[in-house]
Design a protein that fits this description.
Rossmann fold; 11 helices
Length: about 260
């Protein structure tokens, strides 16, 4: 702690305020959450208290990380928080992690390339709020499930409705009705190709809609840019858009909205 104090004058001030009576213990603990960092071997600085500070868990992005580095990160998260969430993890990496995490429960979806691991002591958050999750096509499901991973671990229920795109718009009626009747406070709509579905949904509902463009399509714009531009240029008020294939960002924003609506905060 003394080395950390010498590097961080703000941390020293926080502790001095506690010592002199300038802050209560609860106030000090709240301020200290900003400084919780778990360092691993000089290559990672984990924000292990992000869920406590912001209500949003840190999600490990696996792409371009070695299995050894991932294993070290995963073990630290399990030690510190009792769970870890990983995205963009290929099946070989998931198999390697599963083989070394004997004491943890590991869940992996190869289509979405997402993994969640928990210790026996882990307890999920109390359910607060509901998010509706729609996709235009089956090819958009992996990105949608990335969003669902974050939403559920933030304590919100997910109502799913997949393959409801504008090529057969009548398919949208049942899942959209079900989501609104279930009390969804926000809808996440995932679409590739021309990215039309989020605009359609935003024109029908009285809750916020988060559009997620995906890299699904043919030729020019098939990398997701056509869907991204369409959502950004939407004339349906109430639609906001995240970046291409950004299920994590959409899930985090949606869960914050849903939890706020459920708790009045």
């Amino acid at each position: 702690m003394s080395a950390e104090l010498s590097r961080n004058p703000e941390l020293r001030r926080i502790l001095e305020d506690l010592q002199t009576g300038g802050a209560t213990l609860d106030e000090t603990l709240q301020r200290l959450r900003l400084f919780q960092v778990a360092e691993i071997g000089g290559f990672a600085r984990l924000d292990t208290n992000r869920d406590v500070r912001r209500g949003v868990p840190e999600v490990v992005y696996a792409s371009r990380k070695s299995v050894a580095d991932l294993e070290a990160i995963v073990r630290r998260f399990l030690d510190e928080r009792g769970y870890v969430l990983i995205t963009r993890l290929e099946p070989a990496g998931a198999d390697a992690l599963r083989s070394v995490l004997g004491g943890a429960t590991v869940s992996y979806r190869p289509d979405a390339r997402i993994l969640a691991a928990y210790t026996p002591a882990y307890r999920p958050q109390e359910e607060r709020g509901c998010v509706g999750l729609l996709t235009a096509g089956t090819s958009d499901i992996p990105v949608a499930e990335e969003a669902a991973l974050v939403i559920t671990h933030m304590g919100c229920r997910v109502e799913r409705g997949y393959d409801t795109g504008v090529a057969g718009l009548h398919r949208l009626v049942e899942p959209l009705t079900r989501m609104l009747e279930a009390g969804a406070a926000v809808l996440v709509v995932v679409a590739g190709m021309e990215g039309a579905l989020p605009s359609v949904v935003a024109g029908l509902v009285d809750v916020p809609v988060i559009g997620v463009p995906t890299s699904t399509g043919y030729g020019l714009g098939g990398d997701g840019t056509a869907a991204l531009y369409a959502m950004l240029q939407s004339c349906s008020p109430g639609l906001v858009t995240v970046n291409i294939d950004n299920g994590v960002g959409a899930g985090a924003a949606a869960a914050l909205i849903a939890r706020g609506a459920a708790t009045g905060k």
